[in-house]
């Protein structure tokens, strides 16, 4: 005690220095956690977007005109989505078909099955989605388990939405909206969700 | 006196360290926002590209089945590229409903990227169309071919257009070559 009173100024200043260093260290740790979470979400979003582009471009390939190319998806409302909907987790999965070559005997089917789960994200309960791809009935690929929403739309020549059940001949492209939520978040997280829009041409029979 | 000066120096150093960290954090957040905007701009570019790709390659392509000689296609600089005003780039957009790829040349429009909660974020899109040779060199600059050719390059320049502030992004260039037939 006597030592502190003998060096009062130095004691007060060293206390402040230690406090500031502690806060700097805490902020650096939080920032590092937030950055890691963001990098995970960015990598997952990039990989998933590329994967979707390549997969959806197969839709209808080598299917002769008039053949069934896809089974339209059903949707349900969700406020978290940029399109106000997400593919339904309950009804039949969105399915499309293609053939490896025009002479192939059977069609390959690809189905996007969506499962939902409520998880704690940064202290808040949030419904997250995961897409499972099934090729000819067998599981063949999955999305990250932290999709904030996933919706797929058919669009026409002016990027207008087309109802595939009523006007499938007007479809010109397929537009997918999805988001990936960083798996761990804190106060330093700059963006709590990574939104992506992927558009691929609809060219069946090519 | 010496002890007090040293104490003040240490305080100064940790304060500068903290300030430096704060600035790095703000820069990191701004970079994250710019990077996210760039990805949104890319999505807008992909959608706009499909709008243009959905059009007929050229107004002189024959309506009936068969091959049209590319030498008969629209020629740039002779009033056949672009239209009076702008082409429509999305359903809510203004402008004309253009039917041919070359009509989109010099179109400038605002296209919105949807976000949750009914919000949107606007982007300015500028379209340029030009002929390219087989080696993808612009036909106007290449000694190997001259316009018109059977390849049109669609160049999109996309930039964020916030209503209440200056844009954060430099224009992003996104291009694709569309080939006839």
In short:
Chain A is α+β, with helices and mostly antiparallel strands and 206 residues long. Chain A has two helices and eleven strands; from the N terminus they run H-H-E-E-E-E-E-E-E-E-E-E-E. Classes of the chains: A alpha+beta (206), B alpha+beta (181).
Provide keyphrases for this structure:
heterodimer; A: about 210 residues; alpha+beta; 2 helices; 11 strands; B: about 180 residues; 1 helix; elongated
What characterizes the major β-sheet of chain B? Answer: 4 strands, antiparallel
Chain oligomer state: heterodimer
Radius of gyration of chain B: 25 Å
Proportion of β residues of chain B? 15-25%
Number of strands of chain B: 4
Which sequence of SSEs, written as H and E, runs from N to C of chain A? HHEEEEEEEEEEE
Return the structural class of chain A.
alpha+beta
Largest interface: A-B, 48 and 43 residues
What count of helical segments of chain A does DSSP give? Answer: 2
* Average of pLDDT of chain A: 89
Strands side by side in the biggest sheet of chain B: 1-2-3-4
End-to-end separation of chain A in angstroms reads 86 Å
What is the helical fraction of chain A, as a range of percent?
A: 25-40%
* Unreliable residue runs of chain A: none
The SSE string of chain B, one letter per element, is HEEEE
Uncertain spans of chain B, ≥5 residues at pLDDT below 50?
none
What does this structure look like?
The complex is a heterodimer of chains A (about 210) and B (about 180). Chain A has helices spanning about 1-5, 10-55; strands at about 70, 75, 85, 95-100, 110-120, 125-135, 140, 145-155, 160, 175-180, 195-200. Chain A has one domain. By secondary structure, chain A is an alpha+beta fold. The longest helix of chain A is centred in the first third of the chain and has 49 residues, at about 10-55. Chain B is α+β, with helices and mostly antiparallel strands and about 180 residues long. Helices cover about 30% and strands about 20% of the residues of chain B. Classes of the chains: A alpha+beta (about 210), B alpha+beta (about 180). At the A-B interface, helix 2, strand 10 and strand 11 of A face helix 1 of B.
